[in-house]
Design a protein that fits this description.
With 120 residues, the chain is α+β, with helices and mostly antiparallel strands. It is 34% helix and 17% strand. The protein has five helices and three strands; from the N terminus they run βααββααα.
């Protein structure tokens, strides 16, 4: 995983564009490494998010915002408006099935922005 130390005078938060796709792909898959070993082996693959899947997510309405430091995109956040949806644990399975195309096994073991170290 890459770690960056940025000069705060050159930080920008901005919407990402088509030209950012290679950086988005790299950042998403670098970040996924934090979940390697948490996500079950039968649900893990390399790259964790293939380029075609990332492109499909964008076509499905994910809007990415980037954290740019020193002219380089170094972080991101994806937002996908699905109405009044919150992935609180009791609703997670139902909402993942309703709004996203995720395998049953992935739903069963979903970490939804969490990891055992953060909940213990």
């Amino acid at each position: 995983m890459k770690w960056y130390r940025a000069d705060v005078s050159t930080i920008t938060i901005r919407p990402c564009a088509a030209a950012d796709l290679p950086a988005l792909f790299s950042i998403v898959n670098d970040a996924a490494q934090a979940y390697k070993g948490v996500i079950p082996a039968d649900c893990w693959h390399e790259p964790y998010m293939p380029l075609d899947q990332l492109k499909q997510g964008i076509r499905d309405g994910i809007v990415f915002w980037g954290y740019e430091a020193g002219g380089e995109l170094v972080g991101l956040m994806g937002i996908q408006d699905r109405g009044e949806v919150a992935l609180s644990r009791p609703e997670t399975e139902r909402l993942l099935r309703k709004y996203w195309s995720i395998s049953g096994r992935q739903i069963e073991t979903s970490v939804v922005l969490a990891n055992a170290r953060w909940t213990s």
